[in-house]
Amino acid sequence: MEIANENKPVSRKKFVAWTLGVLSAVTAVKYLFRSAPPHKSTAKMLTQDGKLVEVELSKLSRKKTKLKDSEIHTWVKRKSSL
Predict the structure, then answer these.
(1) pLDDT tens-place string over residues 16-34
(2) Total tally of structural domains belonging to the chain
């Protein structure tokens, strides 16, 4: 018994279809099983001397007050450049 399609070349359409299928499956697995980014529990804030620091959200008070325009301009204490 001989197998008739043993040396039959793969058609271009089948090759492209299989290639696209494999690539889309790999991409789907990559996005479905990726780990969640760690929850950020810090916030970046500016200190009075002009430094940027990270503060834990648990350390901040929930009470919020609105600043006046005059307070904003005088809040940052600048160092003398001498």
Answers:
(1) 999 999 999 999 998 888 7
(2) 1
